[in-house]
Specification:
The structure holds 2 protein chains of 2 kinds.
Chain A lengths: L4 H26 L7 H34 L5 H9 L6 H12 L4 H8 L10 H25 L3 H9 L4 H29 L3 H6 L8 H10 L4 H24 L22 H32 L5 H25 L5 H12 L2 H12 L5 H43 L4 H11 L1 H17 L3 H5 L7 H10 L3 H27 L4
Chain B lengths: L1 E8 L6 E7 L4 E5 L6 H9 L6 E6 L2 E2 L10 E4 L11 H6 L10 H13 L15 H14 L4 E5 L7 H18 L2 E6 L2 H7 L2 E6 L2 E2 L3 E2 H6 L3 H7 L1
Parallel strand pairs in B: 2-10, 3-8, 3-9, 6-7, 7-8
Antiparallel strand pairs in B: 1-2, 1-4, 4-5, 9-10, 9-11
Helix pairs in contact in B: 3-4, 4-5
The chains are: A mainly alpha, B alpha/beta.
């Protein structure tokens, strides 16, 4: 009844080859390289430091925010919870631009400080990288920990209320044990995400003191064209990721896409005015931290839209093509791979970071094609691979539900093979497929990763074009490009997600 | 004739044995405590569970190697009998063809089947726009249209109230007798059995007893039935 086994094996082999061949190329090329130098070790140390700090800060700030969301009902709460999911599809360069507009040298926060007689802020370096990572991962951590809070049975809080326990005792007895279970998982997830940070390090880091291993791979490519060193650094990045994966495997990781965050547990211990004020303050701060940079993108971007050179529009066209290509590829791979084995395969594939994959693909393709010519297809393919685990996380449980709900009915009606897929599975999977396609398209449109290795001056995607404008200090044009990219990512997500929701007439 | 020949099937530690025949055109209620093996019995006949020993035969033909869709069996499940994304008519049409497009003749037959279960004019509705009883009727219309001589009911009406359930069972019995279909219907309500069944298959403690005439059985219940009735 499943997708013909041949197709599943074919898709599995394709994914495995797409990862293993570049890896083989990387290992082969790294063999001839010299040992790691002091700069390389500095990159390893910086990768670990910034990832640890980002994870710790994100989780520490998320705890009070999650607590406030768990115990307060207020207008706009569900909007705030939705907003917490938004950074997932927000292009990194766009977010960085928004953060610069707030915390940069000429940002509104710096100007306010200058007015008050202080020095302006400097966002470049370790603290800028960590700031951007917290911007992206504080919402994720809040959602993960909120799930933990909502998993505490409401009866426990009722029991605490009948016993007249004060807030401190409730925290110690009910909330601390939950946090001890939920926080390690959130820490590891964020640590792993930040460990292979490229775009944030590219835009806010750099230099000997703020270079991640991913960024060092790029620099070995672009500035020194030392492929051996890039390959060696790729091996280092691979070892770091493997170490992090081993760490993650020891912990029960939280589910990535939690549903049902719209409940609020009634709490009798938290009714005091001081606690209410505290929760309101935290949520306001978190919302402002997320919303002000976004608002700045719009505010600066609107005038910038008229300053954009023609390359920006061309780049937008390329990005659209890359996004649609990735989406088709991801969905085509996700359907035959929507099984336990397929999900394991897809997750192990993203343990190999985009820059490592890109390095390997570059080594393989360079003898046969000019890197610029294959830049867009390679970017689409790598982005598809990177989005695959998220797509599977969405699609697989729904497909399993279809099988368990209707499998026997389909068998008894003889709805097997292609009939099962066309008449039952695909119509039942419209919503998750639309959602997964939307995620993939938005992620792919906003990605600044492997394209940076391959692109030539002629062909750039919109995120890369925007980065180039920022590098050339053409901030108005960059602001316009940022707004265009933001609108494109959101529109792509909305269009696919909506397409899955609209009922067939 | 449905023939269960030295049958043994199960999963894990559970085993169900049966060794009996049921004459064609009879309606047999499968009665017994939950966990006794009622659903296992239906699963083996329908082909969802392969027996470890013995055979299932229909009119002398061994069904054991056949896939569920290839057996002379139509089945109504406890739930999820209809695809929610298809209309009532589309659900019924699956009895004839998996294709989306129907010939005019097929469309007529679908209409006629809906008509027979008292749902003419309801073809364009989705299951969500139908009551529980109407959903049961749509599923029954599809089962009829499959024109399979054996009809298995795994408590498809258990979510309905007593009056509606009785009505549905009457309809099943009426249609089955008109078609000459042989029916095995799982139930845990003795009154369902007395209402429509010619015979009762008592399933308890891993054994499906041979079908016994309903009246005689209830008039003089064996120990297993007495234990079940309480």
């Amino acid at each position: 009844m499943g997708m013909p086994a041949l197709l599943s094996r074919l898709a599995g082999a394709l994914v495995a080859l797409a990862v293993l061949l570049p890896l083989a190329a990387v290992f082969w090329r790294a063999g001839g390289a010299s040992a790691l130098g002091p700069a390389d070790w500095a990159a390893v140390r910086f990768s670990l430091t910034q990832a640890s700090l980002s994870a710790l800060l994100s989780v520490a700030l998320a705890v009070p925010a999650a607590r406030a969301l768990a115990r307060r009902q207020f207008p706009g709460r569900s909007l705030l919870v939705t907003l917490l999911g938004a950074p997932f599809i927000l292009p990194v360069v766009v977010a960085v631009f928004g953060l610069l507009a707030v915390f940069g040298q000429n940002g509104i926060a710096s100007r306010a400080l200058v007015l008050l007689g202080f020095e302006p802020l400097s966002i470049y370096g370790l603290h800028g990288v960590v700031l951007a990572h917290v911007f992206f991962n504080l919402p994720l951590a809040t959602r993960l920990i909120l799930q933990g809070w909502l998993a505490i049975p409401a009866e426990r809080f009722r029991l605490a209320a009948t016993l007249g326990l004060p807030p401190g005792a409730v925290f110690r007895l009910l909330e601390v044990p939950m946090l001890l279970r939920a926080a390690p998982g959130a820490l590891v997830v964020i640590f792993v995400i930040c460990l292979s940070s490229f775009a944030v390090a590219l835009t806010l880091g750099g230099g000997p003191r703020a270079t991640t291993v991913e960024l060092a791979i790029y620099q070995a490519f672009r500035f020194e064209f030392d492929l051996g060193r890039a390959a060696l650094l790729s091996v280092v990045q691979l070892l770091l990721a493997a170490g992090a994966a081993a760490l993650a495997a020891r912990l029960a990781l939280p589910p990535a896409m939690g549903a049902g965050l719209d409940r609020v547990t009634p709490r009798w211990d938290a009714a005091r005015a001081a606690l209410r004020a505290q929760d309101a303050a935290w949520l306001t701060l978190v919302a402002a931290f997320l919303l002000v940079p976004l608002a700045m993108i719009v505010a600066r971007g609107v005038p910038g839209l008229f300053e954009m050179p023609a390359q920006v529009w061309r780049a937008a066209g390329y990005s659209l093509a890359v996004a649609l290509g990735s989406t088709v590829l991801t969905v085509a791979l996700a359907l035959p791979l929507a099984s336990r084995g397929g999900e394991v395969l897809a997750v192990s594939a993203i343990a190999v970071s985009p820059l490592v994959l890109g390095t390997g693909l570059f080594l393989i393709l360079r003898p046969v094609a000019s890197p610029g010519d294959v830049a867009l297809p390679v970017t689409a393919a790598v982005n598809a691979l990177m989005a695959l685990p998220f797509a599977l996380r969405v699609i697989r449980p729904e497909l399993e539900a279809v099988r368990s709900d209707y499998g026997r009915l389909c068998l008894s009606l003889g709805l097997t093979g292609r009939w099962f897929w066309t008449r039952v599975a695909l119509p039942r999977l419209r919503r998750p497929l639309g959602f997964a396609a939307g995620l993939t398209a938005a992620l792919s449109a906003g990605d600044l990763g492997v394209i940076a290795l391959f692109a030539d001056p002629e062909r750039a995607t919109l995120p890369l074009q925007m980065y180039r404008l920022m590098g050339a200090y053409r901030m108005e044009a960059a602001a316009g490009a940022a707004l265009l990219l933001l609108a494109m990512s959101l529109a792509l997500f909305w269009a696919f997600d909506r397409g899955g929701r609209v009922a067939r007439t | 004739m449905l023939e269960l020949e030295a049958l043994s099937a199960g999963h894990g530690d559970f085993r169900l044995t049966a060794d009996w025949t049921l004459a064609p055109g009879r309606i047999a209620a499968v009665l017994g405590p939950s966990g006794g093996g009622k659903s296992t019995l239906l699963d083996v006949v329908a082909g969802f569970l392969a027996p470890e020993a013995g055979r299932v035969l229909w009119q002398g033909r061994d069904l054991t190697p056949l896939a569920p869709g290839a057996r002379p069996v139509a089945m109504l499940f406890q739930d999820n009998n209809l695809f929610p994304h298809l209309t009532a008519a589309e659900n019924v049409a699956l009895a004839l063809t998996p294709k989306r497009r129907l010939t005019p003749e097929q469309r007529e037959r679908v209409e006629a089947a809906l008509d027979r279960v008292g749902l003419s004019g309801f073809g364009a509705r989705r299951p969500a726009q139908l009551s529980g009883g109407q959903q049961g009727r749509v599923a029954l219309a599809r089962a009829l249209l499959q024109r399979k001589p054996l009809l298995l009911l795994d408590e498809p009406f258990s979510a309905l109230g007593p009056a509606q359930r009785g009505e549905m069972l009457d309809l099943v019995a009426e249609l089955a007798r008109a078609e000459g279909a042989t029916v095995l219907m799982v139930t845990h309500a003795p009154e369902d059995a007395r209402r429509v069944a010619d015979a009762v298959v008592l399933v308890a403690e891993g054994r499906a007893a041979a079908p016994a005439p309903t009246e005689a059985l209830f008039a003089n219940p064996p120990p297993a039935l007495r234990a079940y009735l309480g």
